[in-house]
Specification:
2 domains; mainly alpha
Length: 139
């Protein structure tokens, strides 16, 4: 890491003028270049058009999430961690003979799903609480 940081420092100091000039490029040109590089990168991994389509679908999904006020970072995190979670869940179910009780038998393994459920349900509970307050204030 230290060597990499020193190399970046050595490269970035002489190129600072280039980076400043790049900030002056109009957004629509810069965005077009970024999209082209993303399409090339998605295609070059497996040479599959499906990967480009997947990238476009998630890009559009992220756009609408941002327009709707939802942060796209949890979706990205879920896409990265989802397959690992699924594999671990399969291993747990295989070791327990298919019983879901393995997830609540131990205190720590019961605590984590309970916290996850509270985190998922807390926006709904807050919404219901605000709705009740508004009904009491109006009625």
């Amino acid at each position: 890491m230290y060597i990499g940081n020193l190399m970046l420092l050595g490269l970035n100091l002489p190129l600072i003028g280039l980076w400043v000039r790049m900030l002056k490029v109009p957004y629509h040109y810069l965005a077009a270049v970024v999209v082209i590089i993303c399409v090339i990168g998605a295609y070059s991994v497996k040479s599959a058009v499906f990967d480009v389509g997947t990238m476009v679908v998630f890009g559009v999904t992220g756009f609408f999430m941002r327009k709707g006020g939802f942060p796209p970072a949890p979706l990205i995190l879920a896409m990265i961690l989802g397959p690992m979670l699924e594999k671990s869940m399969q291993q747990s179910l295989i070791s327990s003979g298919g019983s879901l009780a393995i997830f609540i038998e131990q205190p720590i393994s019961a605590f984590l799903p309970a916290v996850a459920a509270l985190l998922v349900l807390s926006p709904v509970l807050n919404w219901m609480r605000r709705k009740k307050r508004a009904a009491r204030a109006n009625g």
